[in-house]
Amino acid sequence: MSTTPLPAKASLSQLRARAKDLRKAVAKGRPDAIERARTHHPAYDEEGFTLRDAQLTIAREYGLASWPELMEKVATELVEGRELHRYFGVELNNETWDLLEQIDETSPRLDQERILYGAYAACLHWLEAGNEANHARGEHLIARVALRIGRVEIGLQHARRCLELVETHREQMGDWDEPFAREALARALAATGQTAAARVELERVRELAKLISSDGDRQVLEEELAKEPWFGLPS
C-alpha cells in the first residue's frame, strides 16, 4: 500500500475538510473515493462510512496509523509551548463538534468514550492557554456531549459549571455565552426530569437571544436550539 508525503505546510483545517469531502464522495458512490477508502481503511464498510472513517483513511494515506497521530504530527511541526495548547484546544473543539451529531447513546461504547474524552481534552488545553470564557465554552461542549450520549448527570454537572463561569466572569464573555450556557442547562434539566426548571431556562435563552448583537451569532444559537436531544422539552 503506497502512501503520500505530508505537505510541508499542512493544516488540520484543510485535512479535516478533505475528510469531510471524502465522506461525502463515498456516500455519493464516487469510484475514486471508494477506491481510496478500500485501499487505506483497514475495515472499509461502504454502508457505514462515517467522518471518523474518512479521517482514518486520510491519516493512513499519509502513512500514519490514526487521525490523532496525524493531528499530533501536524501540530508539533507548527507550534510549541503554550501555543500548542491553544492549537489543540481549537482542533479538539472543532473535531468534537464535527462528530457530535453522528454519535449518540446508541453508538459503540468506544465512539462514545472518544467523543467525551475529546471534549474533556479540549477543555483541558483551554485551561492552559485560554481565559475563563474559553473554559466556560469547554464546559458547555462537555455538557452537550455528555447529554448526547446519555450521561445526563455528567451533562448537568458541566452545564451548571458553564453557567457559573459565565456569571462570575461576565467581563470576559461574549453576549452569546450566557444564552448558550442556559441552553445546555435547559437540556440537562430536562434530561434529569426537572421539566419546570428546564422551561424557565429555555425561556431565558429566548430572551437573551434577542440581545445578541451579531446576526451570525444569533443564527448559530437558533440552529443549535433546533437540534435534539431536548428530552421531551419543546424547543
Question: What do these coordinates show?
Answer:
The protein is mainly alpha-helical. It is built from eleven helices and no strands. Helix 4 packs antiparallel against helix 5 and helix 9 packs antiparallel against helix 10. The longest helix has 21 residues. The chain is globular and about 55 Å long. The model has no long low-confidence stretch (mean pLDDT 93).
Query: How much helicity do the residues have?
Result: over 70%
Order of helices and strands: HHHHHHHHHHH
Strand count: 0
Could you say how many structural domains there are in total?
2
* Backbone structural class: mainly alpha
Radius of gyration: 19 Å
Instruction: Quote the beta fraction.
Output: under 5%
| Shape annotation | globular
CATH architecture grouping of the largest domain: Alpha Horseshoe
Q: What is the H level of CATH, i.e. the homologous superfamily of the largest domain?
A: Tetratricopeptide repeat domain
Rounded average pLDDT: 93
**Biggest sheet descriptor:** none
CATH topology of the largest domain: Serine Threonine Protein Phosphatase 5, Tetratricopeptide repeat
What distinguishing features does this structure have?
Serine Threonine Protein Phosphatase 5, Tetratricopeptide repeat; 2 domains; Tetratricopeptide repeat protein
Topology:
Layout: H1 12-27, H2 31-40, H3 51-61, H4 67-78, H5 81-100, H6 109-129, H7 132-148, H8 152-168, H9 177-191, H10 195-209, H11 215-225
Helix pairs in contact: 1-2, 1-3, 2-3, 4-5, 5-6, 5-7, 6-7, 7-8, 7-9, 8-9, 9-10
